[in-house]
């Protein structure tokens, strides 16, 4: 019997064990949250256990008669499957990381923002849309919004945005912005430069009055449909480096009808949250 024919089933069994172990490590270590939402964890665990079971089943067949293992074509197919499984295992465990702005700038991200985002979660370009809004939707909302929401009563207390409530709170600030004008806000996000923020539907335009934007990446299915959701920040201090994580505290201000502008009184470095993504709700 050829050495290749003898080694092929052993290699295939070991590669399936590596892939199954990699999936279990991905789910138990929490690294899966860099690619998919928490709801996918059980499926990843089940897949890992299933692959380990297949590996054990293949290893149990290694003692079969030689004629069952003597097919060269079958051995080549087994080695092909082994190669694919080992490549997948390596991709799972390699410590690569894509920066938020790189992910946001991809075509997949833009497509996810256009097709997957809730229509109510559109930060819009209030500088260019405020005039048509005042003529087509009535004068009262435009007057209130451009006056800075002086007649609105700010919500009490500080609004703390966390990984769990980030997306839902941004939805609220878009839908009922004037009600939150003047409210204190506290959040952690990554820094988006004015250039990178341009063209992102869920981040307000960063004008000359603002220094940068702060955002989190929202996902629905997986990292392939991720897109940034966040705020424009007015800050008199030094502008933090793009893609760095910062803790921002300040006061919400309305632009147009949406409270997605922060007058910051504190911008400090922050640790990268785990998970980095926030889950898009429907």
What is the strand and helix layout of this fold?
Layout: H1 3-28, H2 41-60, H3 72-93, H4 100-104, H5 107-116, H6 126-136, H7 139-146, E1 158-160, H8 166-175, E2 184-192, H9 194-197, E3 212-219, E4 227-234, E5 245-255, E6 258-269, E7 277-279
Helix pairs in contact: 1-2, 1-3, 6-7
Structure description:
The structure is a single chain. This protein has about 280 residues and is α/β, with parallel strands linked by helices. The chain folds into 2 domains: about 1-65 and about 70-95, no CATH class; about 160-280, OB fold (Dihydrolipoamide Acetyltransferase, E2P) (Beta Barrel). It is about 40% helix and about 20% strand. The protein has 9 helices and 7 strands. The protein has helices at about 5-30, 40-60, 70-95, 100-105, 105-115, 125-135, 140-145, 165-175, 195, and strands at about 160, 185-190, 210-220, 225-235, 245-255, 260-270, 275-280. It has a 5-stranded mixed barrel with strand order 2-3-4-6-5. Strand 1, helix 8 (about 165-175) and strand 2 form a beta-alpha-beta unit. Helix 1 packs antiparallel against helix 2. Residues about 105-120 and about 125-155 have low confidence and may be disordered.
Mean pLDDT: 78
Structural class: alpha/beta
CATH structural architecture of the largest domain: Beta Barrel
Q: What would the CATH topology of the largest domain be? A: OB fold (Dihydrolipoamide Acetyltransferase, E2P)
Fraction of residues in helices? 40-55%
Major sheet characteristics? 5 strands, mixed, barrel
Strand content: 15-25%
Radius of gyration equals: 26 Å
CATH class of the largest domain: Mainly Beta
Count of distinct strands: 7
Region (Disordered): 114-155
Transmembrane segments: 7-28, 40-58, 78-98
Biased composition (Low complexity): 128-149
Pfam families: DUF1980_C (PF21537)
């Amino acid at each position: 019997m050829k050495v290749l024919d003898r080694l092929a089933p052993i290699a295939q069994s070991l590669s399936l064990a590596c892939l199954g172990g990699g999936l279990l490590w991905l789910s138990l270590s929490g690294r899966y949250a860099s690619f998919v939402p928490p709801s996918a964890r059980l499926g990843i665990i089940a897949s890992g256990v299933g692959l380990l079971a297949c590996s054990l089943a293949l290893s149990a067949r290694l003692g079969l008669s030689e004629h069952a293992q003597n097919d060269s074509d079958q051995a080549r197919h087994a080695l092909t499957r082994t190669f694919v499984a080992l490549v997948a295992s390596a991709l799972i465990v390699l410590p690569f990381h894509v920066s938020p702005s790189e992910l946001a700038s991809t075509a997949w991200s833009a497509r996810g923002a256009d097709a997957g985002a809730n229509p109510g979660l559109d930060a819009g370009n209030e500088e260019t849309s405020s005039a048509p809004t005042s003529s087509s939707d009535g004068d009262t909302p435009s007057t209130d919004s451009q006056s800075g929401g002086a007649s609105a009563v700010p919500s009490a207390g500080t609004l703390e945005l966390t990984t769990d409530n980030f997306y839902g709170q941004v939805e609220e600030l878009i839908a009922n912005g004037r009600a939150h004008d003047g409210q204190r806000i506290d959040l952690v996000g990554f820094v988006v430069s004015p250039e990178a923020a341009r063209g992102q539907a869920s981040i307000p335009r960063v004008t000359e009055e603002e220094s940068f934007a702060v955002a989190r990446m929202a996902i629905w299915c997986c990292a392939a449909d991720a897109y940034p959701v966040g705020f424009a920040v007015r800050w008199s201090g030094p502008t933090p480096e793009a893609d760095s994580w910062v803790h921002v505290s300040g006061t919400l201000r309305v632009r147009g009808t949406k409270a997605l502008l922060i007058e910051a009184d504190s911008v400090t470095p922050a640790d990268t949250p785990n998970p980095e993504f926030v889950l898009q709700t429907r």
